Amino acid sequence: MIPFETINRPENQQPGHIRKIALVHKHMKAGGIEALIVRMARWLSSNGYSVSVYLYSSGGPLLRHLQQIDGLEIIVRDNGKEPPIDLSVLKRLVRAEKYDLVYSFSPSGLLLSYAIPAHVRLSGVYQPETYKLERNRKVIRAIRAFDKNFHQKLVFMNPTVRRYSARALAAEMPEQFMPLPVEQGAEDQQLGSPHSRRIVSVGAIQQFSTHYAQVIELMEELIQIDPEFNYHIFGEGPDEARLQKSIAESDARDHIFLHPMPRNGMVKCVLEDSFCFIGSGAVMIQACGSGIPGITSRTNDADALSEGYFHNLPPYEIGESFWEAPETYEIGELVKNLLVSENVYRKVAERCKQKARRFEIDAVMGDFLQLAEGKLAAN
């Protein structure tokens, strides 16, 4: 495994007084950042924080999830007309009472957040190329014009995103991290079993999801080892027809099942009594947090190799193949290793669970607020 930065968590910080928080974003269209905003707003509100969400462009399908949160203040334009930044929302930004913390989710959100009076200002970075994209350059120049040290306000999803951002901005970045939090079940939940032969993948079915073909081919070998092996794929996407054709042409086709993407609240049922999970992202975290060994998949990999079990990844990485020069493995090798003994299986499952629990929303939000409290105390 290649070296990577050590995560230095803030230590010996005195408690501050952060109670009033503003979240600033463009809209609530369906996406990972928007889902994060819903989780953050719900958690903060339920834990006694006063929270306002400023949506400076429009609403979107996930707006209704925010509207269901008791006590949450939402400032959003009420029509879809231009200009892109609604002036009524901008006025509310400028006239707002002073917040303890303002948190944004993009360069444009960070720029607008400077209009809000605040003691602490932070901005999340959730894609490696965010501060390199051509469309963000004018915004970044505007931010830098009145805050040369704005990069000290950036909070990164993982060390890889931090490294990419450092290159794009040619600056030393702070070790400030906030991974995407995942609402997990009880810590003692155990959905994995060394006696099961049920392999599961959940995710979009697109051309870059190359691991599906690899596992379909692997299944032909696994059913020779144990005919009880079966592979369940839960997903939807533009590459479904080709995936269905691959399944139909496989000698293991009677052991491979394609299902629709699980709806809200159904992920636990999908993961119940599984031997292992193959994939990446939030469902990987949920699976591993429930005691199922996770085998990572790489996107856009012609060889469909894995970067190892979930616990082999660097801190806060979730298997999306952005970090450089990882050690790789064949997926089949990792599956077969779990068959060596029950002890090996349970050891891998426990290590994956320990890593997954660091993404649990209570842990993530606790660390995030500790970071903000430290900033507040330093002001």
Structure report:
The chain has 379 residues and is of the alpha/beta class. Helices cover 36% and strands 14% of the residues. The protein contains 13 helices and 11 strands. Strands 3-2-1-4-5-6 form a 6-stranded parallel sheet, sandwiched between helices. Strands 9-8-7-10-11 form a 5-stranded parallel sheet, sandwiched between helices. Helix 4 runs parallel beside helix 5 (137-146) and helix 10 (282-289) crosses helix 12. It is elongated, with a radius of gyration of 22 Å. The chain starts with 19 loop residues before the first strand and ends with a helix. Residues 1-15 have low confidence and may be disordered.
Summarize the structure.
The protein is an alpha/beta fold and 379 residues long. The chain contains 13 helices and 11 strands.
Count the E strands. 11
Lateral arrangement of strands in the main beta sheet: 3-2-1-4-5-6
- What ranges have pLDDT less than 50 throughout 5 or more consecutive residues? 1-15
Largest sheet: 6 strands, parallel
**What characteristic shape results from the CA principal axes?**
elongated
How is this fold's topology laid out?
Layout: E1 20-25, H1 32-46, E2 50-55, H2 63-67, E3 73-76, H3 87-95, E4 99-104, H4 107-113, E5 118-125, H5 137-146, E6 154-156, H6 159-169, E7 198-202, H7 211-225, E8 230-234, H8 240-249, E9 256-259, H9 267-271, E10 276-279, H10 282-289, E11 294-296, H11 331-337, H12 342-357, H13 361-378
Parallel strand pairs: 1-2, 1-4, 2-3, 4-5, 5-6, 7-8, 7-10, 8-9, 10-11
